[in-house]
Amino acid sequence: MATVPITRRRPLTSMRHDPSAVWHHVDGVMAACLLAVSALGVLMVYSSTRGASAPFDSSFLTKQAFFMALGLVAATVAAVIDYHKILDVAPMIYGGTVLLLVAVILVGSSRSGTQGWFQLGPFQLQPSEFAKIALILGFTYLAVQFHGDIDLRRLAALLAVGGVPIVLVLLQPDLGTALVSVCITFSLLVAAGVRGRYLVLLGVLAVLFATLVLTSGVLDDYQKDRLTVFANQEQSQSQAEYRGAAWNLEQSKIAIGSGGLTGKGLFNGPQTRSGRVPEQHTDFIFTAVGEELGLVGAAGLLGLYGVIVWRIWRTAQLARDDAGTMICMGVLAMFVFQIFENVGMTMGIMPITGIPLPFLSYGGSSVIMGFIGMGLVLNVHMRRFR
Length: 386
Hints:
The protein is mainly α. It contains 15 helices and 3 strands. The chain starts with 27 loop residues before the first helix and ends with a helix. A 3-stranded antiparallel sheet has the order 1-2-3, with helices on one face. Keywords: Cell shape, Membrane, Transmembrane, Transmembrane helix.
């Protein structure tokens, strides 16, 4: 099918004679909150890796600071280039990412039962993280060609764009990232104007597909045990076969609960310093926030996230065209799901799925991907005037 130009590429009046004027429209509130969360992330990674139970490894702090700096550069690049020009190369970005997802299954390195990384010297590259951004761009590129007129054939094409990376990520298997991608896809379907009856049908099919995944051999036993622990937490703590899966949740609850109102103090959390919470610098870093900064600190962090989410939603409403709105809605869905799932799993109200907390958890791929997503939103915000 022949493509058409991305919708409404009209120049901004304020930029016709001065391209640099676009920076006058940057969302300072969003940027400030992003920097605040990122700075807290560096502090919490430092706190989570300097415990008394093992010698301090400064490489975590150094790498996280490097990832943040690299992320800021990536966000700046993503914000500077007009998002319409980025969408013009979206098919290449999407196709290249799919090839990386295939390659990592074949020749990638494995960690915790998931074969999802390329080893690049002292660093690791996780293609599934960048697949989230590629999914948003690829889906948006195709959807804007339809101009809101989506029949079954076009719906199938959109589902294929979302489904291919989801299936490839499940084959690693990485349940958490696959769930994030499902949430992104559904959000983009809504933003694209898919009819309500189709969305209901897709919801039913998604439940059937999830049942198939859970009952098949796609997921590893430890991933199934995590879901079992969530479904029956009290019984799981007394059963030996689930004890390992329940340990994370049990220790996480103890750490958060012991923080009280104001916490034990930065760098002074007993659970954090003793290393009792597994993966406390990555997936369970919110436990360190709860223990050391207490309810006040945790609420402050969630408040910063809330402002970021609100500003992304606001930018989606102010976007100059459907393409900008869809980019923002995809990024919004990605962050909201990750924040809710990560914080929820540390408190036992959501299953443990190994999803990082945006801009806080240690990890280069997730940090840089998050900054790219924010850069795209800032891009849309700066070019919001018709």
